[in-house]
Amino acid sequence: MSKLAVAVLFLATFCVAQQQPQIGYQSAPDADAHKTLLLKDFHPVPMLHAPVHKIDKAKFYVIDVHNHVNDAARIDEHMDPKRVVEVMDNTNVRTIVILTGMWGDKLQHVIDEMVKPYPGRFIVFTQIDYSKIDDPNFSAEAVANLDDAVKRGARGLKCLKDLGLGVRDKSGKLIAVDDPRLDPIWEEAGRLHIPVSIHTSDPEAFFHPTNGENERYEELTEHPDWSFYSAPGGPQFPSKEELLAARDRVFARHPHTQFVALHMANWPENLDYVSSLLDRLPNVMVEFGAREAELGRQPRRAREFFLKYQDRIMFGTDNEVTEEMYRNHFRWLETADEFFDYWGYPGQGRWEIYGMALPDPVLEKIYHKNAEKMFGKFGK
Fold first, then answer.
1. N or C end: fewer C-beta atoms under 10 angstroms in the chain?
2. Domain segments of the chain: what residues?
């Protein structure tokens, strides 16, 4: 190559280099102006190369103690019962507990549609009718309704979070979770040897302002009625701590009644508290419906908790009945996989979860043995 050609090539290369930005170490001065992507449009694909283990069927058969499929309240869309059973068969789920069965004719409809045609596959719980809370004979009628529900086939009592956050008397005052008018109901459940599954309060973030510091900002923006932050001039609610303290007083007042503190006692963000609760009150069980996300992001602490309280934890989902939903939960419990989506991501928050690889004896208790022991008390 001639000297002239070399010179021309050098000049061309130099010009191109001058047109390219230099590799540097400082932030671009206009970086903030370019950060315009909306959070709802941000769907990063992880570059992490990690093992993926698919679990099509649970290692041991499962009792899902927290579901609402085809319930009386119609919390989820109705499914063909045959399709529900198909999903269960495909994933090794033997029994689903339908918590929101209501009472009377509505309860009977759930029993006739789901329980009777599929023996052993479904269990239904009844609920409390608060419409007559101001009546002098409310407690007696509620006990009678509970007895009627059990005679029809109900095998437990469910309390929604509206107790403490929504149910009011005629004066507009919220009914406290530990209202003494409810004590005869809890006592009757103990006499009948049926569990009381109770949902009190909600995720901790729901009691904080919906702003840029709230880890559930997207969820609360999607569901503003889920916020229980007592803003000045707005609706006033008890604090999360007040709600749980009232619930825990109920547990302590009725030691012969079996309670299930749903959603990991509704404080999975604080497993030290849940541990203290279980240590103090032997009549309390927990389950993890709709709290896979909270537990899965703290795998070491959660695994330690599951091992220590393996006789007190039950399997629950509180999700729509699909094969993939159950398989996601099995992966979380059975494998040591890292950094994968919890079911429903990013609905509860933008973080990933990690598998706990629980030992077989612990899995078997959580999947079905603990629930069978609890339900086995009925009629004794």
1. C
2. 61-375
Which tens digits make up the pLDDT trace of 275-331?
Answer: 999 999 999 999 999 999 999 999 999 999 999 999 999 999 999 999 999 999 999
- Sequence-distant (6+) residues with CB within 8 A of 285 are 195, 258, 259, 260, 261, 312, 313, 314, 370, 374
Q: Which of 177, 49, 46, 159 is nearest to 103 (CA)?
A: 159
Contacts 24+ apart (CB under 8 A), 79-87: 79/321, 81/113, 81/114, 81/117, 81/118, 84/114, 84/321, 85/118, 85/121, 87/321, 87/322, 87/323, 87/326
| Backbone dihedral angles phi then psi of residue 42, each to the nearest 5 degrees | -95, 105
Report residue 163's pLDDT band, with 50, 70 and 90 as the boundaries. very high
pLDDT digits (tens, 9 = 90+) for 2-28: 665 555 455 555 555 556 678 888 999
Peptide bond into 195 cis (omega under 30): no
Backbone φ and ψ for 197, nearest 5 degrees, come out as -95, 120
Domain 61-375: top CATH class? alpha beta
Would strands 157-159 and 122-124 be described as parallel, antiparallel, or unpaired? unpaired
How is 67-91 classified by DSSP, letter by letter? Answer: E-TT-TT--S----HHHHHHHHHHH
